[in-house]
Amino acid sequence: MSVSKKFTKDNKVTVTFTIKKTAAQNAKKIDLLCEHNGWQPVAMKPQKNGTFKGSITVKAGEQPSYQYRFKYTFEDNSVKYDNDWDAERYVANPFGGDNSVFSAVRD
């Protein structure tokens, strides 16, 4: 898994999430869930090489960081929630687990 960020001159950052084929675990669908939009699912697009990609845009520095996680849906319609294995950091969530975090400020 990886997260890349591109900051724009108009004070926004486009964050692109990539899930490698091995991490996708044969999922038929993967959604990105992020606090920036009230945890509403954003469908990640499957790529020809077996990876999944998705992007969101947030205001840079509006808040220092955002929490996110992924929702995997498999052929049998079972669902699994997972974090980014390479996240910048993790924070506890109210369900006894943790969420991945990305920063929305320039390093």
Structure explained in plain terms:
The model has no long low-confidence stretch (mean pLDDT 90). The two termini are 20 Å apart. It is globular and about 40 Å long. The chain has one helix and ten strands, in the order ββαββββββββ. It has one domain: Immunoglobulins (Immunoglobulin-like, Sandwich). It has 107 residues and is mainly β. Helix content is 4%, strand content 51%. The protein has one helix at residues 21-24, and strands at 2-7, 12-19, 29-34, 42-43, 45-46, 52-59, 65-73, 79-82, 89-92, 98-103. The strands form two sheets. Strands 3, 4, 7, 8, 9 and 10 form a six-stranded antiparallel sheet that branches. A four-stranded antiparallel sheet has the order 1-2-6-5.
- Strand runs, count: 10
Task: Give the ordered list of helices and strands.
Answer: EEHEEEEEEEE
Briefly, what CATH class? Mainly Beta
Main sheet characteristics: 6 strands, antiparallel
Distance between the terminal alpha carbons, to the nearest Å? 20 Å
Morphology call:
globular
Mean pLDDT: 90
